[in-house]
Design a protein that fits this description.
Rossmann fold, alpha/beta, N-(1-d-carboxylethyl)-l-norvaline Dehydrogenase, domain 2, single chain, 11 strands
Length: 326
């Protein structure tokens, strides 16, 4: 089995490192100082006070790798569109593309059934580049739960979590998704296969669409946001609106709102990925996590007044910082 991790950042690098312990032929796409460090010293992962080095075959030239059985697309959501040309050499007729991004996936309405079947989301794929160049038929959904960050080139700190929830857009337990789950389980992850992957997407998104933009506006950690008497009603309002959108589109939420907030608070004094990106001067994942929820609300006829306000504020905050080009 040939598997390429496209985007060996914190999460992609962690996945690639773990996969080296399986029978798969593993490679990854990276660039710049991170790539140079991995070539020189291996990909180093720190977890639980220990550091391990992994010899991962890495390159910045996808054409050198050829067609793959699986491509794990581990870029931030806003970077995927620009990468479609580079992806092409990796894609054979049966290549599956694992969309390991936060937020609403660009293929959301593919094989969902009903009147919205195959509807495309303008906020995520305005020119149809993802739909046409990758193809929704290749997509396997992946909800990413591990938290990790690159602390220096070639070095990833794995903070917590090992679950990578998988699912086909049509809900089937296909051979390709079962084989991928087996591979990831062998690599030390927990990789359950869901028949309703959109439910899992909404459960993760429920926190990201609220905590992430509010952390950018306040620079507060998860625990601080959840505990603040003035902010908590804003979190609840945003999550209530998102629950209405998801439910209108057929999603089912496995836990209630207060349980989801407590779960985020229990992570502790952790900065969201969006706040980390702001502090490091990297573009923010606003559209997949927030703008797309606003668009889905408009499609479903579910109002999102608090989400609209926070979205406008975080977009302006990111524009002022030069980190949002929409």
């Amino acid at each position: 089995m040939r598997i390429c991790v496209f985007g060996a950042g914190a999460i992609g690098g962690l996945i690639a490192a773990r996969l080296t312990g399986t029978d798969a032929e593993v490679s990854c796409i990276a660039r710049g100082p991170h790539l140079a460090a991995m070539r020189a010293h291996g990909l180093r992962v720190r977890a639980g006070g220990e550091e391990s080095a992994y010899a991962v075959h890495c390159t910045d030239d996808p054409a050198a790798l050829g067609e793959q059985d699986y491509v794990v697309l581990a870029l931030k959501a806003h970077s995927v569109s620009a990468a479609t040309v580079s992806l092409a050499p990796l894609l054979g007729p049966d290549t599956a593309v694992v969309t390991a991004q936060n937020g609403v996936p660009w293929w959301y309405f593919y094989r969902q059934g009903g009147p919205l079947e195959n509807r495309r989301l303008v906020s995520l794929d305005p020119d149809g580049r993802l739909w046409n160049n990758i193809g929704p038929e290749r997509a396997i959904g992946c909800v990413v739960y591990p938290a990790a960050e690159i602390v220096e080139p070639g070095v990833i700190v794995h903070q917590y979590g090992d679950r990578l929830t998988l699912g086909e857009p049509d809900g089937s337990r296909s051979e390709r998704v079962k084989a991928l789950a087996g591979l990831l389980n062998a690599a030390g992850f927990r990789a359950p296969v869901r028949t309703r992957i959109r439910d899992d997407i909404w459960l993760k998104l429920w926190g990201n669409l609220s905590f992430n933009p509010l952390s950018v506006l306040t620079h507060a950690t998860l625990a601080a946001l959840a505990a603040d008497a003035g902010v908590k009603p804003i979190l609840r309002a945003m999550m209530t609106e998102a629950h209405g959108v998801g439910t209108a589109l057929g999603a089912k939420f496995a836990v209630d709102l207060d349980t989801r907030i407590r779960g985020a608070a229990e992570v502790g004094e952790h900065k969201t990925s969006m706040l980390q990106d702001l502090e490091r001067g990297r573009p923010l994942e606003i559209d997949a996590n927030v703008t797309a929820v606003q668009e889905l609300g408009q499609i479903a006829g579910a109002p999102t007044p608090m989400i609209d306000v926070v979205l406008a504020l975080v977009q302006l905050r990111a524009r002022v910082a030069g980190l949002y080009g929409r």
